Amino acid sequence: MTQNQINQSAWAEKWPAPAKLNLMLRITGQRSDGYHLLQTVFQFIELCDWITFHPVDDGRVSLQKPIPGVPEADDLIIRAAKLLKAETGCEQGVRIEVEKNLPMGGGLGGGSSDAATTLVVLNALWGLQLSMEKLMELGLTLGADVPVFVYGYSSWAEGVGEKLERIDIPEQWFVVIKPNCHVDTKEVFLSKDLTRNSKSIRIADFIAGQHQNDCLGVVRERYQSVKDALVDLSEFSEARLTGTGACVFAQFDSEEAAVSAYRSLQKKWQVYLVKGVNESPLFSKLKSGNIS
Ligand SMILES: C[C@@](CO)(OP(=O)(O)O)[C@H](O)COP(=O)(O)OP(=O)(O)OC[C@H]1O[C@@H](n2ccc(N)nc2=O)[C@H](O)[C@@H]1O
Ligand SMILES: Nc1ncnc2c1ncn2[C@@H]1O[C@H](COP(=O)(O)OP(=O)(O)O)[C@@H](O)[C@H]1O
């Protein structure tokens, strides 16, 4: 099969942009530019936005329908596509269709994942041949979480989230609650009450059960619905915050236990029942479609 034939069939397809959970998050310091140094564990979940790329002749990049509340020029999908063109001088155009399923500002990384899927898939469709390392570097200029979605495997992350080490962790079931509020990441990091001096730990400590999220205290105090969700979820299993929130989640050893908690919490909350996966669904699809 030639590159051209591969491109032709892949243009019409829907590409997943999965969500992530931060299974723990420690803030170990701060850089001179204000960004915080983290230790975190990312795992993907099988809850995805879906993105389709349509070729256009006029060289322009646009969205078929802007995401409500996000001006098109600010959309990370548009910014990622334009960044690829600027970096490579590519003159091709694209109209991008998004099926948005991930709640925004929930700590599930939807915007970052959309940007990563755009970088990875357009790199292939446009035949740009940028390396994964280059795409991760470009992605980091869009957001701290973009590199892990480009990398595509569960990771132990340090720095601001760009120093990644692949880890394989049990692929368990999760129940995720989206409290009815939007947490501003920047505001959390600006809080004077935030813990910024956690001791660094090792992967083995995380595996042994060290699940602390240093943002939890600040977010729980500022957002009553996050606090309430943590209380309700902790009736079933250890309740944790992903990223800077607002979503909270709990892990279950069996699908039955997760379903039971999901059914009960569904009466009161916007809730998702999802499986954790170590390989990003984007990469599973790229491998099966043979265009990586
Ligand atoms: C902390 C995490 C963990 O996954 O939280 P979530 O956003 O997923 O909840 C992310 O790394 C967030 O990444 P992302 O949401 O892309 O953040 P960015 O847009 O890069 O940064 C938003 C703002 O938060 C602050 N910020 C962000 C990341 C970081 N390590 N230190 C910071 O101080 C900066 O003030 C920055 O201007
Ligand atoms: N394609 C996109 N999808 C979601 N949010 C986007 C997108 N492009 C830009 N954004 C902006 O990024 C913000 C954070 O969104 P998101 O990545 O979903 O949350 P989080 O970083 O908490 O996981 C949104 O509030 C929105 O303003």
From TrEMBL:
<feature type="domain" description="GHMP kinase C-terminal">
    <location>
        <begin position="197"/>
        <end position="269"/>
    </location>
</feature>
<feature type="binding site">
    <location>
        <begin position="103"/>
        <end position="113"/>
    </location>
    <ligand>
        <name>ATP</name>
    </ligand>
</feature>
<dbReference type="InterPro" id="IPR006204">
    <property type="entry name" value="GHMP_kinase_N_dom"/>
</dbReference>
<dbReference type="GO" id="GO:0050515">
    <property type="term" value="F:4-(cytidine 5'-diphospho)-2-C-methyl-D-erythritol kinase activity"/>
</dbReference>
<keyword id="KW-0414">Isoprene biosynthesis</keyword>
<keyword id="KW-0418">Kinase</keyword>
<comment type="function">
    <text>Catalyzes the phosphorylation of the position 2 hydroxy group of 4-diphosphocytidyl-2C-methyl-D-erythritol.</text>
</comment>
<feature type="active site">
    <location>
        <position position="145"/>
    </location>
</feature>
<dbReference type="InterPro" id="IPR004424">
    <property type="entry name" value="IspE"/>
</dbReference>
<comment type="similarity">
    <text>Belongs to the GHMP kinase family. IspE subfamily.</text>
</comment>
<feature type="domain" description="GHMP kinase N-terminal">
    <location>
        <begin position="76"/>
        <end position="152"/>
    </location>
</feature>
<keyword id="KW-0547">Nucleotide-binding</keyword>
<dbReference type="GO" id="GO:0016114">
    <property type="term" value="P:terpenoid biosynthetic process"/>
</dbReference>
<dbReference type="GO" id="GO:0005524">
    <property type="term" value="F:ATP binding"/>
</dbReference>
<keyword id="KW-0808">Transferase</keyword>
<protein>
    <recommendedName>
        <fullName>4-diphosphocytidyl-2-C-methyl-D-erythritol kinase</fullName>
        <ecNumber>2.7.1.148</ecNumber>
    </recommendedName>
</protein>
<dbReference type="InterPro" id="IPR014721">
    <property type="entry name" value="Ribsml_uS5_D2-typ_fold_subgr"/>
</dbReference>
<dbReference type="InterPro" id="IPR013750">
    <property type="entry name" value="GHMP_kinase_C_dom"/>
</dbReference>
<dbReference type="Pfam" id="PF00288">
    <property type="entry name" value="GHMP_kinases_N"/>
</dbReference>
<feature type="active site">
    <location>
        <position position="20"/>
    </location>
</feature>
<dbReference type="InterPro" id="IPR036554">
    <property type="entry name" value="GHMP_kinase_C_sf"/>
</dbReference>
<keyword id="KW-0067">ATP-binding</keyword>
<dbReference type="GO" id="GO:0019288">
    <property type="term" value="P:isopentenyl diphosphate biosynthetic process, methylerythritol 4-phosphate pathway"/>
</dbReference>
<comment type="pathway">
    <text>Isoprenoid biosynthesis; isopentenyl diphosphate biosynthesis via DXP pathway; isopentenyl diphosphate from 1-deoxy-D-xylulose 5-phosphate: step 3/6.</text>
</comment>
<dbReference type="Pfam" id="PF08544">
    <property type="entry name" value="GHMP_kinases_C"/>
</dbReference>
<dbReference type="InterPro" id="IPR020568">
    <property type="entry name" value="Ribosomal_Su5_D2-typ_SF"/>
</dbReference>
